[in-house]
Amino acid sequence: MVTFAVSGALGRMGSRIVFLGLQEQGLKLVGALERKGHPAVGKDIGPLVGFRESGVALTDDPERAFRDAQVIVEFSSPQVTLEHLRLAIELKKAMVIGTTGFSKDEEEELRRLAQKIPCVVAPNMSVGVNLLLKVLQDIARVLGDEYDIEIIEAHHRLKKDAPSGTAMKMAQVIADALKRNLDEVAVYTRRGVIGERTKKEIGIQTIRAGDIVGEHTVLFGGIGERIEIIHRASSRDTFAKGALRATLWVVDKPSGLYDMQDVLGLTDDESNTCPK
């Protein structure tokens, strides 16, 4: 039985991880964390997420929430995630991190710190999306520079970061396959007289509207044909189930930084490579 705690336990993702985790064989929820002063602190987490009594009280004390857990599942803000990662290192706990929106400096710190414990970091934990990342790498290599590449992502109106972590991961995978520097070729907005499209650029466009859970389209546009690969999530449960799968997987792994490609066995080896 793997014991785990959830940080951001009443958030859009965290609440689904708690709900499904309470029913997952092989997992036992032992901690549920929310921000300081949350009005539900002290109440049983089960009914708060639509489940029966669980015996686990929501807390705003990270050390108390993480104390009895083997794995900490983290879906919160970048700054809070880094604080909890430092605590996890101190407590010698494994982590599964799905937080997005890190700055470059924060991402560098995340990579450095996460090497000290078994840690899965992934902007999207859907099995389908991670299989798609593998496919995109192969497609980009075959098509090469003769096809224009555009990525369009759509999410709900409450999402704070843009582009999505998933869109950026897709762009990085494609750029790596084509041996391009994403910082140099990414184009996020177009307006006015912009001139002809360059062969190297990778467009990354953002839509925010309503309650869209998550949609990603990767378009390869050639002369005479267009290839579109689309992933649409209709429920956050697909991400939550992936996070729980990662929780079961990471618990007995050596210290190092992994991603969902490792969890799903889509990499050639488990070489502790950081997700791009």
Give a brief rundown of this model.
The protein has 276 residues and is an alpha/beta fold. The protein contains ten helices and twelve strands.
Q: Can you describe this structure?
A:
Helix content is 35%, strand content 23%. The chain is α/β, with parallel strands linked by helices and 276 residues long. The protein folds into 2 domains: 2-121 and 236-263, NAD(P)-binding Rossmann-like Domain (Rossmann fold, 3-Layer(aba) Sandwich), CATH 3.40.50; 127-233, Dihydrodipicolinate Reductase, domain 2, CATH 3.30.360.10. Mean pLDDT is 94; it is low at 270-276.
Multimerization state? single chain
**Poorly predicted runs:** 270-276
Counting DSSP H or I runs of 4 or more residues, the number of helices is 10
Q: What's the number of structural domains?
A: 2
**CATH architecture designation of the largest domain:** 3-Layer(aba) Sandwich
Mean pLDDT: 94
List the helices and strands and how they pair.
Elements: E1 2-7, H1 12-21, E2 27-33, H2 45-48, E3 58-59, H3 62-66, E4 71-74, H4 78-91, E5 94-97, H5 104-114, E6 118-121, H6 127-143, E7 148-155, H7 165-177, H8 182-185, E8 186-187, E9 202-208, E10 214-221, E11 226-233, H9 237-250, E12 256-258, H10 260-263
Parallel strand pairs: 1-2, 1-4, 2-3, 4-5, 5-6, 6-12, 7-9, 8-9
Antiparallel strand pairs: 7-10, 10-11
Helix pairs in contact: 1-9, 4-5, 6-7
